[in-house]
Amino acid sequence: MSTTGVASAETPPTDSPAPYRWRWPALFVILAAEVMDLLDAVVTNIAGPSMRADLGGGASTLQWLAAAYTLSMAVGLVTGGRLGDIHGRRRMFLVGAAGFTLGSLLCAVSVTPAMLIVARVVQGLFGAVMLPQGLGMIKEMFPPKESQKAFGMFGPVMGLSAVCGPVLAGWLVDADYFGTGWRMIFLINLPLGAAALFGALRYLPRSRSDSRPRLDIPGMLLVSLAALLIIFPLVQGREYDWPAWTFVMMAASLIAFVAFGRYESRRSKAGRDPLVVPGLFRKRGFSGGMVLGLIFFSTMQGFMLVFNLYTQIGLGYAPLKAGLVMVPWSGGMIVGFGIAQGVARFGRAVLQAGTLVMALGVFGVWLTLDRVGSGVGPWQLLPSLLVTGIGMGLLMAPFFDIVLASVEQHETGSASGTMTAMQQLGGAFGVALLGTVFFGLLGGGIATAVDHRSDGLRGQLAAAQVAPAAQDRGIADRRAGASDRATARDPAATPASCARREQDTRSAVTSPRAGARIPAALEATASSAFRSGFGSVMKTVLWIVDGMLVLTFLLAFLLPRHARPEGAPGH
């Protein structure tokens, strides 16, 4: 983020007003709001399987828990900033913090998947009102010499939240305090939200922007519709076996995005405030940065979701263990941020190097799964996840500054808001896309793994004196049952193929001894195939992730070579 008034910071006029008295306590109030957002953006990746086991719902539920939050925040961020300009940033911060806390309470008391998803939307929308106000107030409260220190606090807070978020979520789910289970990850927001509200009332300044832009409600509705038309069919299409309406919706999404662009252009020419300044997209660096960011943040968020599902469902890790597995990734990101500060003079090359390092780390994850197989443990994943995190930190650290170097100084505010919204939209798209690919391949991957084990299973059934015809039925039922259970809409329900398998197993029993051996052999095969199938699908997704990172590397050539020096005029 760039600050205003930097050029005049060295020789302030003698009559300049004194800095706001409570600016440092106010900064911690703003950081507390950032922590709530950062934690809630990642906790459902860890707690999602527990939520689904408790409330029911299909695989798409796991995707919506993350996508609903990021999508609603994406479409509300720019408007949220405008609301602060119109009604006052302190007032809108209070509204956003109160609504976010209420949304957290709604999440905690949800009794159905639909109720939980709607509550996540409420969180995202009020988060979009709350977060932009803090950045605007920092610019107002701090003199230019101190503003860099204030903004510099965001890096460590983001890093600590990235490290602590998954661990905290896993710990709270496993601890099951007062029988709350996963609900505690949202209940913990209640005291945090109350502290943020009281702190805001006490320490945040009353202020209002000199400019009073008008809200672009039609633009917000158009871009929301366009985003929903692409995200919804991507998430739900697989469960409905991709009917024609899913493809119609995706085509309609393109039409809606085009209509949004034309409306924004007309609104800008008419002298009214557009949601997104159309002129920004005529700059190669900014347009390239938006596409690059969309792909990268899609890659990052989609990978995090799929990897957490793999460790918990595929490998059977408890939530706390799954959260601890992600610590090297998050720690590596902090290291990458630190390295990027030391080599910032290399500009775009740092971003591209980070992309290659991250791709190398993802390939390391693939190599680990390929060598170790379904018995992989956290310590074996640590080196590759650490490298992946370092690459991500190197990429993210200079990204916003380099993209903003391609826009004029007076366009920086609008460009920053647009890029932040794009980051959230990319996260929702990645969760929808990679999550759908993962679950779409899962049934076939597990069925193939059963096929690979059919000869060994057939030998065990023959040794138990099971007739060849019954062997074929047992293997076929086991194949269908394992696949259906992995992709079932209701994880608590027994698929019909599994019920049929149990009936066939009982009918195939020829002796008490065989009756004891057959179920054990079938269950061992299914368990092994389940883990192996998850691993093979995860490896396929890793290749897709690396392909997206290669595309990110190539798109980086569209960006300016260096970030704009502090205080320099626009290009």
Task: Give a verbal description of the structure.
This protein has 20 helices and no strands. It has helices at 23-55, 59-87, 89-108, 113-141, 144-152, 154-175, 184-187, 189-203, 217-236, 244-269, 284-314, 319-325, 327-342, 348-372, 378-404, 412-452, 454-463, 468-487, 496-508, 512-555. It has two domains: 18-216, Up-down Bundle (Growth Hormone, Chain: A), CATH 1.20.1250; 280-485 and 494-571, Growth Hormone, Chain: A, CATH 1.20.1250.20. It is mostly helical and 571 residues long.
Rg from alpha-carbon coordinates: 26 Å
* CATH superfamily (homologous) name of the largest domain: MFS general substrate transporter like domains
Report helical residue fraction. Answer: over 70%
* Structure summary, number of beta strands: 0
End-to-end distance? 17 Å
Topology:
Layout: H1 23-55, H2 59-87, H3 89-108, H4 113-141, H5 144-152, H6 154-175, H7 184-187, H8 189-203, H9 217-236, H10 244-269, H11 284-314, H12 319-325, H13 327-342, H14 348-372, H15 378-404, H16 412-452, H17 454-463, H18 468-487, H19 496-508, H20 512-555
Helix pairs in contact: 1-2, 1-4, 1-6, 1-8, 1-11, 2-3, 2-4, 2-9, 2-16, 3-4, 3-8, 4-5, 6-12, 6-13, 9-10, 9-16, 11-15, 11-16, 11-20, 13-15, 14-15, 14-20, 16-18, 16-20, 17-18, 17-20, 18-19, 18-20
Summary tags:
571 residues, mainly alpha, Growth Hormone, Chain: A, 2 domains, 20 helices, 77% helix, 0% strand, globular
Short account of what is shown:
By secondary structure, this protein is mainly alpha-helical. It has 20 helices and no strands.
